[in-house]
Write a structure and sequence with these properties.
Layout (H helix, E strand, L loop, with lengths): L4 E2 L10 H11 L12 H21 L6 E4 L2 H14 L7 E5 L4 H12 L4 E4 L9 H7 L4 E5 L13 H8 L5 E5 L11 H4 L3 E5 L10 E5 L25 H39 L4 E2 L10 E5 L5 H7 L4 E2 L15 H5 L4 H5 L1 E5 L6 H19 L10
Helix pairs in contact: 1-8, 2-8, 3-4, 5-6, 8-12
């Protein structure tokens, strides 16, 4: 069976073969438990985990001791927000979050709100940007924590986390950012940005599934989510999976070395795809800012169709989505698209395209032709799919 072209690199990314090769020995002879302190098997695994910790820290400008390995961004977000909220003093329990956070952050905010933590949700502008001014306006004397993502998981808009950090740090407010989509795609530097907690996921940046990390700035207190053996500075008990940590470290090292060149290449391919779709389909529109945006992201609304019908029509040719993988089975309009002012009809006509490390110009042209042809078949309208080289 011929597999469809994969253009859903927000949901996950294929494991980079270089990361896979780095992991391989730790599935085989080097199988030790990194917490076994009495013999060479444990020392070998521990050394590999600590090397990976250094690589992940270097990607975001952190100290290795500030990196806590987790099972992924969902756990990191929960540990960050729930863990920080549990340590907030009386009188500082007000929380602020953007209205376009990933479902796992939104769900944690809903949970805490139900437990007596007042929550203010800050709306983005039409471009999908949550401004520092809007965050500042939401802050009260009793605000203890702010959570704003680094890059949106649907429309790819980059949030001004440095400007937001400049608002929170002088006020002594804990600032958390979900960087699962941004890490490895755009530069991140936690200290200049004033970020206290930053969530990462390996499988969003060509590393293995099942591992993530939380940056915890030195001096920030968190309540662990669960009790156990006290690993990861007592913040995340459980055996660190050495093979996955090694793969994460390799992915971070590769991203750090190749990010700038890869971003330029993907930005060019994204613009090529937009040009071809705009030429073929009348009325195509981009959701969110096209400048403050992840280089590989294109979120579009196509007139006259429902996105799920288009995606189904493309299932044998191109794999794309209508938004977050966590909500891909939902037929409800995206909360992100509603938040930037789209009508339900516009939101339901929107598709998310994520280009990747191995996407080629030929792939882009093939995808543009397939999307245009599927749109024409669904709408009964003509489209032009002959593109200039």
């Amino acid at each position: 069976m011929t597999r469809p072209l994969f253009l859903d690199h927000h949901s996950t990314t294929p494991l980079d073969p270089r990361a896979f090769e780095a992991m391989r020995p730790f599935f085989e002879a080097a199988f030790g438990n990194p917490h076994s302190a009495d013999h060479a098997y444990g020392w070998e695994a521990e050394a590999a985990v600590e090397a990976a910790r250094r690589d992940v820290a270097a990607l975001i400008g952190a100290r290795p001791g500030e990196i806590v390995f987790t099972s992924g961004a969902t756990e990191s977000n929960n540990l960050a927000i729930r863990g920080a909220a549990a340590r907030l003093p009386e009188g500082r329990r007000h929380l602020v979050a953007s209205a376009i956070e990933h479902p796992c952050v939104a769900a944690v905010m809903d949970l805490l709100e139900g437990r007596g933590f007042p929550v203010t949700r800050v709306m983005p502008d039409r471009d999908g940007i949550v401004s520092a001014e809007a965050v500042a306006a939401a802050i009260r004397p009793e605000t203890g924590l702010v959570s704003v993502m680094a890059a949106n998981h649907e429309i790819g808009t980059l949030q001004p986390i440095g400007d937001i950090g400049a608002v929170t740090r002088p006020r002594g407010i804990v600032f958390h950012s979900d960087a699962a989509q941004a890490a490895g795609k755009v530069p991140l530097a936690v200290e200049p940005a004033g970020v206290d907690l930053l969530s990462l996921s390996a499988h969003k940046m060509y590393g293995p599934k099942g591992i993530g990390a939380l940056y915890v700035r030195r001096g920030v207190g968190l309540e662990p989510l669960f009790a156990g053996g006290g690993q990861e500075r007592g913040l995340r008990s459980g055996t660190v999976p050495a093979p996955l940590a090694v793969g994460f470290g390799a992915a971070a090292r590769i991203a750090r070395a190749e990010m700038a060149e890869e971003a330029d290449r993907l930005r060019g391919l994204r613009d090529r795809l937009l040009d071809r779709l705009s030429a073929a389909i009348p009325g195509v529109a981009v959701n969110g800012s096209l400048t403050a945006r992840l280089p590989h992201n294109l979120d579009l609304r196509l007139p006259g169709v429902v996105a799920v019908d288009l995606i189904h029509a493309l299932k044998d040719r191109v794999a794309i989505s209508a938004g977050s993988a966590c909500a891909s089975a939902s037929l409800e309009p995206s909360p992100v698209l509603r938040a930037i002012g789209l009508s339900d009809e516009e939101a339901l006509a929107s598709i998310r395209i994520g280009l990747g490390r191995w996407t080629s110009a030929e792939d882009v042209d093939r995808a543009a032709a397939a999307i245009a042809e599927a749109w024409a078949a669904l709408t009964g309208q003509a489209c032009r799919v002959e593109f200039e080289a």
